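To: structure subgroup
Subject: Chain for Friday's discussion

All,

I'm putting the inputs and outputs inline so they're searchable in the archive.
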Amino acid sequence: MKLTEQEQNDLREGKKIFIEGMTARSGNPFDAHIQVNAERRGVEFIFENDKLFNRQYLGGVELTKKQIDDLNGGKAIFVEGMKRKDGELFSSYVKLDEATGRPSYTRYNPDSPEGAREIYIPNEINGVKITAEEQQQLRDGKVIFLNDMVNRKGEEFSSFIKADLETGRLSYSRTPDGFEQREDFKIPTKVWDVELTRQQRADLQSGKAVLVEGIKGYDGKTISQYVKANFNQGRLDFYNENPDRKRDASQRNVVANSQRQEQGNRKSKGTSIA
């Protein structure tokens, strides 16, 4: 199937185009939208039924029929006690991405209005259980203090904590007034003339990296970049590769290196010299 010059330009700019009369490997004809996936470095086919959510489980939690119907109806649902790949349990609001049909996870209810967000406050923060009163204080925008928390490196720390009332994201500070000293950074509606979707803005506000396609550089060429909000500096940072994936990989490498070192130490202790 040959593409017109306009269709090729649309693909280069990250747009989705509809192609009829393609032929599958089985020899059967099919129609589909196609779009360049910069992350996978290739073209992906998007079918209408791809947006239909028909999974029975999310993160190991069985969904009710109503939850599945709500997802397919464009509504957000709340799922409690899901499990990440590393075994960590988490709860989250879930809504299907309008563009891809894939589940998107947030700490706030995306169906609730801006300025009156419904946010999720966990029962435990970094290994420390919090009371119902402390949860409500965070929902009200107040600051709480927790001792003996444990970070991802296994180090204990204590900190003042405050929740972002729009995203549910938790911020940490050594002083109770340290939150007010930070610049109030708002996610823009556009990045280099590329309109951000509601989901992209929500992900950026939640601290996630998003892929923005169709950005025109200074030389006029169209590029794709990962974008992530830097709340401390009050700006957006740009990356060629997904910074969230690189961070996860580096954490896995630290664990793997530590395990190898422990194994080496055990072998050394078991060696005798004649």
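Points worth raising on Friday:
Confidence is low (pLDDT under 50) at residues 248-274.
The chain has four domains: 5-46, 51-106, 127-182, 183-256.

D.
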